[in-house]
Every structure is written in C-alpha cells, then in structure tokens.
C-alpha cells in the first residue's frame, strides 16, 4: 500500500513563498509600493495641514485660525475673530493666523457665560443688547465683528436688531412665558407691551447677567420673556 502523497497545495505554496523571498524583482516592486504609499500619506497630511480647526501650530495658547494672506486674515480671520487677527500675527503664505481669542466650532455657551460673568458691571456704556452681543461673540457668534452698531446691517446695540439677527441666523425662539433660560441662552423681555424692551444673558440656575441696569447673577424669571437658543 502506497503512502499518501503530499497535499497538492503544499508544494505550490512553498514555491510562491520562495519567490517572495528570493526574487529581487518582487522585493523591488514591494519597495516601490510602500514608497508610493508613504508619499501618498505625506501628500494628504500636507493638504490638510493648517486648515480651519487645526490649532496645533499656533505660537500662543489661545488657538489658530486660517488665512490665505495678511489681507485675507484681517478681513476674514478663519475660525477666530477678525478684529483680533491682525497683519502682524500672520505669516503671508503660511495660511495660519494666531488669534487672541479661543476658537470655537459653532457657539460655545460656556465661553459666553464665562465672558458675561467676568464683564458684568464693567463698561457701563455697553447697554443691555450690546452686553449680550459681546458675550455671544465671546462664544463664537458674530465672527469678524468690529462695529456692534453695524454688523452686516444689524445694529447689535438695539434689542430689536439683536433679536432679529438671532432669529435669522440659527437661533430658535420660545413662546412667551416667564422663563429662566439655560446657560448661554438669550432672554428678551416684554415690558409694558414692548416685546423687545430688554435683553439679558442666561447663565444657568435661573440666573442672568445683564446691563442697564447692571445685575449680575440675579434671578432671570422676573417678568414675561422669550428665550432664544442656538440650534
């Protein structure tokens, strides 16, 4: 009785493996493939370096935006605030512009509340709407603002214009009630039948920060109001 012959697949497998080890042409092709792969990864990394949201190369601790040139930087400012993005802080062609304020994606309610708590009662010339607008700006709203009296056609020193801007730019409005609001939301009060009589910033726990008059950390549900929140 003859012994079983070796499995048909074993010899070809060994032969292929031998080719992979011994043939210089195969090794050369493998080296070319891996070199091409490494080059592709480098190209992709370079293409995405310095884009908006990449703050790793900023020389400050506050963040980095994106600018194509010094003039583009001063007019646009990437993710940051154009007023704080000056020609002295950008390297032309470098596509980076270090900003003075923390960059945020969308609206950062915590940053707005932090600014409101730190600046409530300061600069009495900022009346209620401008105080709220500046707090929202610290949270990422109104990118590039330099004049609160005329931001893209809106006078952010007026409650009515602040209200109108927010409704037209991604903020939803509640029905009228006597609301507390959540931290970072905007409260618009109806006083004596005027639906845009007063604006304040909700800071959480049924409290607010406001100007005109300055009230910091006081109750927010003191009268009929609506709540505007970023959606």
Q: Which CATH C-level class of the largest domain is it?
A: Alpha Beta
**What is the strand tally?**
9
Q: Given the helix and strand composition, which structural class is it? A: alpha+beta
Shape: elongated
- Uncertain residue ranges: 1-21, 45-105
The CA-CA distance between the termini, in Å, is 83 Å
**Rg calculated over all Cα atoms:** 30 Å
Q: What percent of residues are in strands?
A: 15-25%
Strand order of the largest sheet: 4-9-5-6-7-8
| Integer average pLDDT | 73
How many helical stretches? 6
CATH fold topology of the largest domain = endopeptidase fold (from Nostoc punctiforme)
What would you say this structure looks like, in words?
The protein has helices spanning about 10-20, 25-50, 70-75, 110-120, 130-140, 160-170; strands spanning about 65, 90, 95-100, 170-175, 185-190, 195-205, 205-210, 215-220, 225-230. It has about 230 residues and is of the alpha+beta class. It has two domains: about 30-105, no CATH class; about 110-230, endopeptidase domain like (from Nostoc punctiforme) (endopeptidase fold (from Nostoc punctiforme)). Helix 4 crosses helix 5.
SSE order and pairing:
Blueprint: H1 10-22, H2 24-48, E1 64-65, H3 70-75, E2 90-91, E3 96-98, H4 109-119, H5 128-138, H6 159-168, E4 171-173, E5 186-191, E6 194-204, E7 207-210, E8 215-219, E9 225-230
Antiparallel strand pairs: 1-3, 2-3, 4-9, 5-6, 5-9, 6-7, 7-8
């Amino acid at each position: 009785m003859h012994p079983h012959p070796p499995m048909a697949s074993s010899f070809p497998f060994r032969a292929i493996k031998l080719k992979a080890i011994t043939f210089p042409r195969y090794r050369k092709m493998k080296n070319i493939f891996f070199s091409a792969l490494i080059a592709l990864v480098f190209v992709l990394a370079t293409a995405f370096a310095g884009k908006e949201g990449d703050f790793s190369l900023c020389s400050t601790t506050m963040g980095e935006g994106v600018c194509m040139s010094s003039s583009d930087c001063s007019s646009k400012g990437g993710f940051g605030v154009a007023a704080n993005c000056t020609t002295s802080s950008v390297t032309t062609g470098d596509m980076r512009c270090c900003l003075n304020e923390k960059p945020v994606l969308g609206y950062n309610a915590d940053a707005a509340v932090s600014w409101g708590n730190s600046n409530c009662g300061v600069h009495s010339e900022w009346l209620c709407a401008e105080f709220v607008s500046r707090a929202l700006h610290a949270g990422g709203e109104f990118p590039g603002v330099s004049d609160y009296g005329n931001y893209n056609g809106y006078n952010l020193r007026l409650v009515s214009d602040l209200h109108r801007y927010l409704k037209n730019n991604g903020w939803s409005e509640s029905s009228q009630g006597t609301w507390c609001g959540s931290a970072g939301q905007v409260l618009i009060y109806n006083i004596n039948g005027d639906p845009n009589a007063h604006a304040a910033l909700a800071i959480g726990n049924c409290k607010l920060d406001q100007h005109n008059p300055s009230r910091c950390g006081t109750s927010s549900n003191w009268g009929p109001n609506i709540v505007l929140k970023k959606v």
